[in-house]
Amino acid sequence: MAIRVLVADDERLFRQSLRKLLEATRDIKVVAEAADGQEAVLKAQEKEPDIALLDVRMPKMDGIKAAKLIANLARKTKVLMLSIYDDDEKIISAIRAGAAGYILKDADQKDFIEIIRHTHAGKAHSSPYLAHLTLDRAPGREGLSEEDRKNQFSLKYGLTEQELKILRLLAEGLSNEEMSRLINLSRETIKMHMKALFRKLEVKNRTEAAVLAVREGIG
Q1: What are phi and psi of 187, to 5 degrees?
Q2: What pLDDT is recorded for position 166?
Q3: Which CATH number does the domain housing residue 177 bear?
Q4: Cα 120 from Cα 192, distance rounded (Å)
Q5: What share of the chain is helix, strand, coil (3-state, %, to 5)?
Q6: Minimal CB count within 10 Å: which of 92, 130, 187, 189?
Q7: Which domain holds residue 167?
Q8: Same domain, 83 and 50
Q9: What pLDDT is stored for residue 192 in this prediction?
Q10: Are 77 and 152 found together in one domain?
């Protein structure tokens, strides 16, 4: 059975091009298009697609708000966000809103399609376009207090108290300069802690670190 997809983007040419790309495969079918966030929510309820591809920036309702509504109203639909920007804050907001992942619009065509297939199948997809950064909570953490979660996370990754503090601020979307002012550390020191965090968490950048923190319930 073909993967049923909704494409939501305010640029008609992009929607049409994406439809042609997806329907050139045998296992993907575009069942609906939307030009704004409100229309995307209505089409998701009506068509119940397997995957909703939502542009982050759309009129009437942005993609992040639409993703949150779709997650609540069309529970069988998995949302993938689309954007031309690798925007830390937007990515984290989208994941918090219930999106299964995030794809940059300059993704390779083959990788783009594979991301959709893997997301539909519920499989992780190691991609430079961030689609694998899902917000599934780690098992066994729901009943823990915030302090216990922090302690377990710190022990698991060997984080210092200062590194954990910086990670939490990172997950809140603060820049290095804002962190520097808030916790009274130089930007050079912040960068040093960041490098240590990336190494210990085995992530490539601040976005992956922030989403990991959110996923583990400490962000």
Answers
A1: -65, -30
A2: 92
A3: 1.10.10.10
A4: 39
A5: 50, 15, 35
A6: 187
A7: 146-215
A8: yes
A9: 93
A10: no
Distance CA 195, CA 203 (A): 10
Q: How far apart are CA 43 and CA 15, in angstroms?
A: 15
What is the value of pTM for the model shown?
0.64
Contacts of 15 (CB under 8 A, 6+ apart): 7, 9, 33, 35
Dig out the tokens for 31 from the structure.
Answer: 């069942």
- Token look-up 């994941």 returns 95
Q: Considering the domain boundaries, does residue 134 fall inside one?
A: no
116 vs 103: CA distance, rounded Å: 10
Residues, the chain: 219
User: CA dihedral in degrees (21, 24, 26, 27; nearest 10)?
Assistant: 10
pLDDT at 187: 92
Q: In the predicted model, is pLDDT for residue 136 greater than 50?
A: no
**Whether residues 163 and 82 fall in one domain:** no
Q: pLDDT tens for residues 10-27?
A: 999 999 999 999 989 989
10 Å Cβ neighbour count for 146? 9
The answer to the question of residue 138 being in a domain is no
Q: Structurally, how many domains does the chain consist of? A: 2
**Closest among 86, 44, 85 to 61, alpha carbons compared:** 44
- Mean pLDDT across 164-181: 87
Domain membership of residue 181 (yes or no) is yes
